[in-house]
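Notes from the 1:1 (GR / supervisor)

We went over the backlog. Supervisor wanted to see one worked example end to end before approving the batch request, so GR pasted a single chain during the call. The sequence is below; no edits were made to it. Supervisor asked that the structure be written out right there so they could see what the output format looks like.
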Amino acid sequence: MSSQDRAWADEAVRRINAENNRSADTHLYSVPLPEHWGVQLYLKDESTHRSGSLKHRLARSLFLFGLVNGWIREGTTIVEASSGSTAVSEAYFAQLLGLPFIAVMTRTTSPEKIDLIEQFGGSCLLVDHASEVYAAAEEVATTTRGHYMDQFTYAERATDWRGNNNIAESIFGQLALEEHPIPRWIVVGAGTGGTSATIGRYLRYHRHGTELAVVDPENSAFYPGWRDGVADFSTGMPSRIEGIGRPRMEPSFVPAVIDHMIQVPDAASVAAMRHLRGLAGLHAGPSTGTNLWGVWQLIAKMVADGTQGSVVSLMCDAGDRYAGSYYNDAWLQSRGLDPRPHEATIRDFFEKGSWPGGS
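Structure output shown during the call:
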């Protein structure tokens, strides 16, 4: 690397760290539950990042990783394969550094996310199927002589799982004064697998008794791959819940750090997302609903066992990104998603404190 390239990279790292230094941590909300259950639920609201989602953390780490490895230089075109939110966040950081950005996504990505990418100066290449994004992104990077960020490979290694202000360290810092500062469960979804890998490793490194549960939507390869111990499992089918679930087991998904997985019906994700707004006044996206469907099952088990403690999950992004899709009844009907039976299950759970089948 020339002295000119090194000077540009030094300035780029300074800009990213300065952006982080200007940013407050995200809120950890307490969600109201019946007091006699003896369980506290906390949601970490990642929608308050400047780029609007949990993926802001990943994008920052990926840019720093690319810079310190010498992969990103002045004028480098940044390319990513994404289901939307990572691309929004990477477009934000590319604009911060004055770099061109191209996102490769499926045509089903919400128009709201595409608009945000373009607002941050990025451009979008849309493909028909989720399995096509990898090769298309590699081809764009080769053609432009740019850098393919490849979140699905590098997410688990770009973030320092021991600490360094990662999301796990932030959660435990914010819980320090709570009644149960070491949660019984942390519940997250998997898109790249980077968040679950970071949290799972952090829990083991710090010897916390907390268990990690990962929720997964229909069609995704993560749950069956974890269940059956098949590292290269593939469904070849796209997830209908934006931001989580993949047609194949991704390199950043680390099954061994996961204690429990729950497969969540897609319509149940929508039901839980909508229920949250009435319960806590939080307007979230569908992946947050997937988290909550798993949360309710785990809390029901705690109540049944008489186990007191806390549970933590993530509000991954805000619901306004999905006004024309998951919050639109006609859109849901056109895709065969009916949240009403699952909404009834949630109402019944809050009335009785138990889950159907006792799970």
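Supervisor's comment: Residues 3-22 form the longest helix (20 residues).
Batch request approved.
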